[in-house]
Specification:
Helix content is 44%, strand content 9%. The protein has helices at 15-34, 42-56, 74-90, 95-104, 112-138, 140-156, 158-172, 213-216, 221-227, 245-254, 282-288, 306-312, 321-324, 341-356, 380-386, 394-414, 437-440, 470-477, 500-504, 506-515, 518-525, 534-543, and strands at residues 197-203, 231-237, 292-297, 317-319, 362-367, 421-427, 449-452, 459-466, 486-487, 490-491. The strands form two sheets. It has an eight-stranded mixed β-sheet with strand order 4-3-5-1-6-7-2-8, sandwiched between helices. Strands 9-10 form a two-stranded antiparallel sheet. Helix 1 crosses helix 5 and helix 3 (74-90) packs antiparallel against helix 5. It is elongated. It is a multi-pass membrane protein. Its main location: membrane. Keywords: Cell membrane, Membrane, Transmembrane, Transmembrane helix. InterPro entries: Alkaline_phosphatase_core_sf, OpgB/LTA_synthase_biosynth, Sulfatase_N.
Length: 562
């Protein structure tokens, strides 16, 4: 006997419910990624979507007028899937990072999990396009307002909005040199009688926000113990174009945001031959002062141009996964990015022993990866100390890296290797999306930055600043004198001079970054760093005056900066 029940009673016998159900799940997932709601919210959202579909009869025979048409919204929907993938994986989507990594190279990355996620997102996106096409072809009402939906999808996509904002700023704005006018050519005017050695430890994604014990417990406690012995800087914010590893290191070593070689650059999508060749960075200055410089990182130096940057800016040795793997006692003790942090710190100890054996000051810059998003890569020594890792909790990985860092410095100190060494500990950038993401974004976030060593006062300095200011601060902490306490776009946080963030605020600087062209050209099309003579210093410090503020830039009642 043929059933007289309506089609709704047999949801699995008609493709409309498969199509509508999948679209509902996609909508729920999108909202759970974009809004501060838990992932399982996608189920009630999908349920509400299906309830609305049943009430309005979407795709039902009464409204079916099948036409073989292609929806206008297919491409906008596909672009939304791209944005959702980036947002889900990184939390905050930075277009500058996307363009830079396309040029600098991503073949040697360690994000195997993100490749899997990309495949899943691609499959889900394709299925959603099939389901949406079926709905448009089947239900004439959807065809009537689908073009409006297309416009809304285009206007609301942050990826397209960012590109449009950049393009509009370039066309409309007649001043594309606001930041470049504030750039101070780094010049060492005075030098310490006995230059200290330098140890720079970049802690991957390990921001100072984790120091909030109410939200994150003791995850940051070992770094707090280290900070109690030196100068801790609170309030180091993140500007646009400084929020990924290479950008963070360039900001703190060159005093400039890493504006990619596009969008206006003729070689926008060709492989880079150099990284930031037009500015003088920490390595350029110290190599001319006689420092022997080494970079040490557990990941590949081919990824994102790290090798190009350090080799092009004064470093004698640049060691990454490829060079360090043969030195492992256990060649299988690797993660998808490269060396674990406990191994990296042990090799750093060996490198410092070798540097100490030769005359003259040395500098070692190292980059950990243990607290890398999304889950981290806690070392074997931490698992022996902290117990099993659940594979998700980023706070486990944060605590691991913090403890390994303190243990490493205490071992160096016990051997007298820090007696004449300045230590800088800093996060390379704020964390991307991790298991503690909802807690991290509850309030203002700031980067880790502390200095330890002989002559460094044990104090806490609270100032609104950015990672651009680490460059001159580090140089002055080493005993060098800078014109007006400035280098690049940064201002030493050891001096009373106001920095860019204090003068203009993060939002204004980010707005100016969308309009800036001259600084971008300086970074990528400027002259490569050249050896300095005494005449160069005179020209930079007095003969050629750097314009730092134009009358039209000065807010009412504000004195121009030094």
């Amino acid at each position: 006997m043929k059933s007289s029940l309506p089609l709704l009673s047999h949801p699995f016998r008609h493709p409309r419910w498969w199509a509508l159900g999948f679209l509902g799940l996609c909508l729920g997932h999108a909202l759970s990624v974009l809004l501060p709601i838990p992932w399982f919210s996608l189920l009630p959202i999908a349920g509400l979507w299906l309830g609305l579909a049943a009430r309005l009869g979407w795709g039902a025979p009464r409204h079916a007028r099948y036409r073989r048409v292609w929806p206008w919204s297919l491409l906008p929907l596909a672009l939304w899937w791209v944005y959702l993938y980036l947002s889900h994986g990184f939390g905050i989507v930075d277009l500058g990072a996307v363009f830079f990594h396309l040029q600098a190279g991503i073949s040697e990355h360690g994000g195997a999990g993100r490749i899997t996620a990309a495949i899943l997102y691609t499959l889900a996106g394709l299925l959603s396009l099939v389901a949406f096409t079926w709905l448009i072809r089947t239900d004439r009402r959807w065809r009537l307002w689908e073009k409006v939906l297309m416009l809304a999808l285009v206007a609301g996509n942050p990826l397209l909005f960012g590109l449009g904002q950049r393009g509009a700023a370039i066309v409309v704005e007649d001043d594309g040199a606001w930041l470049d006018r504030r750039y101070q050519q780094p010049v060492l005017q005075g030098r310490p009688a006995s230059p200290p050695n330098l140890l720079v430890i970049y802690l991957e994604s390990l921001e100072r926000t984790y120091a909030d014990r109410e939200r994150f417990g003791d995850a940051y406690a070992d770094l707090d113990r280290l900070g109690a012995r030196g100068s801790v800087f609170a309030g180091v914010r993140q500007l646009d174009n400084t929020g990924w590893t290479m950008a963070g290191m360039i900001a703190s070593q060159c005093g400039v945001p890493l504006m990619p070689a596009g969008l206006l650059h003729d070689r926008q999508f060709e492989p880079l031959e150099a990284v930031a060749p037009g500015v003088d960075c920490l390595g350029d200055l110290l190599s001319e002062e006689g420092y022997r410089l080494t970079y040490l990182g557990g990941a590949s130096t081919d990824f994102a141009g790290k090798g190009l940057f350090y080799e092009g800016h004064g470093f004698d040795r640049v060691l990454g996964r490829e060079a360090l793997t043969p030195r492992l006692t256990d060649p299988d003790y690797l993660n998808s990015w490269g060396l674990y942090d406990d191994t990296l710190f042990d090799i750093a100890m060996q490198e410092i022993d070798a540097l100490e054996a030769e005359p003259g000051p040395w500098g070692l810059v190292m980059l950990t990866l243990g607290s890398h998003a999304p889950n981290g890569y806690p070392s074997r020594r931490c698992r022996e100390r902290q117990g099993e890792f659940d594979g998700v909790d980023i706070l486990y990985s944060v605590e691991c890296t913090a403890w390994l860092t303190r243990d490493f410095l205490e071992r160096l100190e016990a051997r007298g290797l820090l007696d004449d060494t300045l230590v800088m500990i800093a996060s390379d950038h704020l964390s991307m999306r991790v298991s503690a993401w909802d807690q991290l974004v509850l309030g203002e976030r700031d980067n880790t930055f502390m200095l330890l060593g002989p002559g460094v006062e044990a104090t806490r300095i609270e100032r609104q600043a950015s990672t651009l200011d680490l460059y001159p601060t580090l140089l002055e902490a080493m005993g060098y004198d800078l014109p007006q306490h400035r280098a690049g776009l940064g201002v030493s946080l050891l001096a009373p001079t106001l920095n860019l963030v204090e003068r203009h605020g993060v939002e204004e600087i980010n707005r100016r970054l969308t309009q800036e062209r001259a600084l971008q050209q300086r970074l990528w099309e400027g002259l490569a760093p050249r050896p300095r003579a005494q005449g160069d210093e005179d020209a930079a410090s007095g003969g050629v005056e750097q314009v730092t503020e134009m009358p039209r830039d000065k807010p009412a009642g504000e004195m121009p900066p030094l």
